[in-house]
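pasting for the record
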Amino acid sequence: MELYMSVAIGVLFTVGVYLLLSKSLLRIILGMSLLTHGVHLLLLTMSSLKTGAPPIAGEQAQRFVDPLPQALILTSIVISFGVTALFIVIAYRAYKKLQTDNMDELRGEQDE
């Protein structure tokens, strides 16, 4: 199972970096979103994919699943959604003001 997750993480990182290197602001935002989802899968895979009982006190502690990675990933998902929403709002305002989403034109390389 870890092999399939590693391949999925690699694909998400590859597509995310490809989108980050484009000139369109919307593609850059989507690339950041894909990178954060890749990091979430990476954290989940590093915490060893195993199934078991919920972490309630008992005598068979080896079967229990550690809840800390899932809590960290859930927190990271909420933060990434907030950051993505902020990026979208900033990109929308920049598009409304400058009428473009090209990064070369947004850098202020316009001669006036």
